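=== Structure Prediction Worksheet ===
Name of assembly: unnamed complex
Input type: mixed (protein and possibly other molecules)
Chain count: three
Listed entries:
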Amino acid sequence: MTVGDDPRTLAAGWLSPGMLVAFAVFGTLPLWIERVGLYRYLGVEILIWCLFALGFNLLLGYTGLPSFGHGAYFGIGAYAMGLTQFHLVADLWIGLLAAMLAAAVVGGSVALFISHRRGIYFALMTIAFGQMFFFIASKWTSVTGGEDGLLNIARLPARLGVVAFDLTGNLAMSYFVFAVFVMATVLLWRLVHSPFGKVLRAIKQNETRMAYLGYRVYVYKWASFTLSCAVAGLAGGLFAMAQNGAYVQVMSLQWSGVVVLMTLIGGGLVSFWGPVVGTVVYFLARDLLGAYTESWLLWFGLMFMLVVMFKPEGLAGLWQDAVARHAAHRRARAVALQPAASD
Amino acid sequence: MELIGTLGPHLLNGVALGLLFALVALGFMLIIGVMEVINLAHGSLFALGAYVAVALVTPEGGLRLTALAPYFSMPIPGRFVIALLLAPLAVAGVGMLLELCLRRTYGRDPLYGLLLTFGAALVIEELIRLVWGPTERFLPLPTAITGGVTMGGLVYSVYRFFASAFAVGMILLLWLFLQRTRYGALIKAGAHDSEMVRALGVNLTRLRLLVFAFGTGLAAVAGIVMAPIWGVRPHVGVDAVVPAFVIIVLGGVGSFWGAVIAGLLIGMVVGLTGAFATAWSLVSMYVLLVLVVTVRGRGLLGKKSVLER
Amino acid sequence: MALLEARGLHKRFGDHVVLEDISLAFPEGRLSGIMGPNGAGKTTCFNVLTGGVRPDRGRVVFGGEDITGLPPYAIARRGVARSFQLMNVFDEYSALENVLLAAPAVRARSFNMVHDLRRDTGARDRAATVLARVGLGGKERVAAGRLSYGDRRALEIGLAVAAEPRILFLDEPTSGLGADGTARLAELIQELRRVLTIVIIEHDMAFLFRLADQISVIHWGQVIAEGTPEALRADPWLARSGLGAAV
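=== Predicted Assembly ===
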């Protein structure tokens, strides 16, 4: 037994029970989603956004940095996917790689400006850059298609050696996105439990102290930002495939705001899975609530405000509280049931 | 080179914008002084001011109540003045609600306050979109302040003159209020040292509420006056908070005239970019923000301001 | 030769001169104290020595190297560690995890995105040793935010010690501690001084006079007196000014 394991981070190396549950649910999603009255494409959307949100949470939940312009990198990934397909080579893997790289390069460049900051300076800079990219994408019509977007992006087949999977159908697309999701989630999980991940969480708790302990804090912040942009780019690339197009709306402040809302409500500040929970809640709100009222996003936003005010740990926080209460209850009962100690 | 000769109207535009930016920034600055958090929703309240004004001036602007028909038959100047008076009050009310919400985040990690005001900005923008629709709205103006006046072969917008004069008036009024009245002194003191104000027995809670109402009301006034220049769109909110922040960083938190001068500078930049590349004028603000924050670095010589947390 | 020296430090904030021509020398292996009333400039001085503030004029020399104006992380890496008066630990992490972060060996591998820190028994054992030294043995798993005040103070110092520094700065370490806590702290410092050069800022003059080899008194941004505790006690000027009165 190693000394002093914090129960919160007690997770087996690469996988965890929570991860297996999530994989079971999302892996089988295409099989039962229609039976609950929803549709296959929703599964695709949810998984893509889960990926986006998980990457985003690396920045918000783990490093404590609020980025309100992350949609820009999602969008850059989407455009990169399309542009690679049209102008370079029509290969799925290269397209996705390009999506990640483009978003990471741009994100990394932006991060150079903001890594030394935090709080409001950081937030406003991310808004400024997000708006600038939104503007560029809207005006650079020759490259991005402007307000209409980059259309006719094909869902290229996934070639693995001799076998090729056709992804034009939503079922196949669901499984493909799921596969990408699995790989990304496992890697992200490993990352947040690695020394690097621990440093990020420490920076979130007390950036000043980390500096006085000899850590070049801005480098870690830079890396965290760039990685989250790479994941956003990957999600964007998948999105471009799913939608058969790259649209400028994804780079808007509203889109960027939605990922913040989802991540926090789900409990990203305290849990790895928070963003996933939040994403599911968002889409359920959108499709179920949205069927009844046009103002569902308003309600979602108000819910966000209430969560920040009263329970910033979000839904995952509520779950953790319940688990802790249950454990304390069990311990109390175990103690009460023990025979009195004799001296 | 002939472009230089046509700069006049753009300079006027820059001055008008700058003065209005300064007004927004001053309200923003007062709030920063007594609060612990930066209000990202300040811009949305700016936009809300314009929208409420639209509702008060045009019958199809939101208040679709037939009972108000006699009100809407009043001539436009009358309705415009009423809008200028009532809309800021309404927005100040919303501002106070926001302050109430923010109370839960005091004393905690500043990240929460930031997230809350961001959420509020989104909520207000969505509210605007739901009530008034996503398309652009127009604020009808009294004919006296519309149109153009030709000077030296160039056409200058009468409205820009009005807007500049109005803004100057408001700024002077604000300055007098802060310098000469008791409440003003309290707000200034609170902006400097809330601990001291509390020690003086002043109800800090009420002071914060008052300052918030005041600051957001100023933003609303600026929003109304800016409406014919910038247009009335739900998204205008974000575009409004950025120059306010840049002004604070440039002019220094707590410097009244520093904010005014910085505001004019920024207005000129935006106005002049409008002269050479119209589409880029709004984006120039974002570029300016990046430049200012990057270069200005720590802001106030080693002293941490509330912006640094 | 002094391990760390400050020469002619000068610092002003706005039009308030906080440090005026301050020169200090901290010999290796000794325990030095800095004392003075509030607002005298002690904290600013500390901040200049450890990198949080850049002086307008003057030099800071550590082990022969000029470290003036270097950022905190750079100075920390060279072996200068400090504790904070307003406690500055990682509340969500356990005491052990706190101390682990401070270890230079862990910091060196901090870009590793794959490794699992729980397997590193060497680092964990060393961290446990540090915790035991500061009196937190047995509390490794407790979240720092849930430790008692006295324990948090101990952890605060533990963090600085775990960084394996050459010189340790303690900023008002007795803050908020009662008689028991102060006694415990004095014991800890007596143990640490055998292997570390220590500099302490303190208000509690009795504490400082008991432990320090030499003390510098700072008032109005200047060093107004300097010497061994005995010499200072005997100084008539100090006695009159009331600063030596408490001892």
